[in-house]
Amino acid sequence: GEEKSVQNCERLLTDLRRRSATISPLKLRRISSTRPIAVESLCNWETDQTSLARGEKVTLKSLSDNENWDVISADGAKKTFPGVCFLIPPPDPDAIDKVELLGNELADIKKRRAALPASLKNHKSDVPKVQQS
């Protein structure tokens, strides 16, 4: 029964590894990053001063307030648009790190589980020696 549980955990971990690469880093939508972040436009947006086309890739410079983002276009111009216009593409490094942590924990459990029978055999062979003395 335990072997079936371990195999199920391995299967789930494999699935998590695959899916973790498709998770967008939502935390970056709320917290300013020290490094530039590539973002993609989800819609067309036009103002008197500038415009944005759907699918356009720009670099997030800063979150100027809760609603607007300062971005740098491919031609180097700084523009401000509503943050809802952008997608921060996957992967989320935190999600990948969490899956790796889970993988390490599962590997540790499997290692301890494999060492358990040998430990029990050594313990059983020590019992008769103690009783003889």
From TrEMBL:
Record-annotated Desmoplakin SH3 domain positions: 25-89
Pfam families (UniProt xref): SH3_10
Alphabetically ordered keywords of this record: Phosphoprotein, Repeat
Identification of the protein by name: Desmoplakin SH3 domain-containing protein
Species per Swiss-Prot/TrEMBL record: Ilyodon furcidens
